Amino acid sequence: MLKECLSRVQERTPLVHNITNYVTVNDVANVLLACGGSPIMSDEPEDVEDITSICGGLNINIGTLNERSIEAMFRAGRKANELGHPILLDPVGTGASKLRTETADRLVRELRPTVIRGNISEIKTIATGSGTTKGVDADVADAVTPENLPAAVAFAKELAGRLDTVIAITGAIDIVADSTKAYVIRNGRPEMGRITGTGCQLSGLATAYAVANPEQVTEAVATAVTLMGVAGEIGWENMLPGDGNSTYRNRIIDAIYNMDGETLEQRAKLETM
Description:
It is a single chain. By secondary structure, this protein is of the alpha/beta class. 52% of the residues lie in helices and 14% in strands. A 9-stranded mixed sheet has the order 2-1-3-4-5-6-7-8-9, sandwiched between helices. Helix 2 links the parallel strand 1 and strand 2. The protein is globular, with a radius of gyration of 17 Å.
């Protein structure tokens, strides 16, 4: 599964339209290039329908919302729906403000995203319409742990079935689920949380994988999540004395660029539930 999904991305060079937040837009573009995809960034409402039309998929990230970008998200999303292109929604900080929560709710209801990727607090807010998200970090009480993992997997499957989407919950333990199966991934490093935008990068990566693997979107997203975690581990192993989080960001991107299917499969810590 992992090797095949990775190979298809490298062979098909998926073109992804990103309406993402301006804090991490450059890193998202570089990760897409590193994995073998190709990025386009546009959030101008008069531009996004044309851009979406020439791309294979749409990555929507609500990290830095404004009226113009919200309009662009809906215009691009409706065009992607019309064309049958996959949409990934990254509901950054949903639950932290009324605007974020209401916008994410509308995006889910009106655009029917193919994939929703967020931390556990963000995904719970999507499920209930309210939450306890603090900034862009998951509330500690909502962390996925070995003890509550079965309940978290059941929650992800139920929500995926209810919304007819793939749910990706990322954190110390990652869950990627549709209504019938879930992949649990334990790759990654805690130091990845000290870099702004690893989640945003993963959303771009997962969109590219969904575009390149349309017949197995759940497996594609699980592969992208595994790839990001393995890259975090390799990047950390390559750190030198004096290196910091800026260097670590670059080493993660380099690890994605240099990844091959054999390395990914050998290092993957993935199980099905």
